[in-house]
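Let's practice the habit of predicting before peeking. Look at the sequence and jot down your guess about where helices and strands might fall. Then scroll down.
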Amino acid sequence: MHHISKETKVGIYQAVVITTLLYGCETWTLYRQSICRMDHFHLCCLRKIAGMKWQDRVTNTDVLSICGTTGIEAFLLKAQLRWVSHVMCMPDSRIPKQVYCGQLAVGSRPQCGPVRRYRHRQGEYEKIWNEPVYSRQRFTRPLTWRSLCIEAVTQFEDESRGSSA
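Done guessing? Here is the structure:
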């Protein structure tokens, strides 16, 4: 395995391990603890690929830049934004769109505290653009939406690297 380049190892890791780890993540409701656990696994794998030990005291952002990849949360953001664009382009009669855009007419939350839903995660993305993610004008031009998603993921990565550095 020593004769295989680091870029090849990272590429195989992303193609096999990351896709398996994040299978179906488009519809997950994630809590910070779950994201931290996946990020820890992701960084441990990248450290192993790069031949680093925890005693080397290399920061997480340095590990990501050395391996030429992004954090796990950026992968999640990209997948979820892509899925939202597919749902919003569906006709209103489709069940996924009805579930995503619908709200309960009656009912209340349990008194033990707020339950985090998928839509709350999308609210975090709305802060990136200062506009609702599910705004209809975003989905009329797919290339514009794709470039906005790439810009949002890049901006998210820059902010997360800036806050942890």
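How did you do? The chain has one domain: 6-164.
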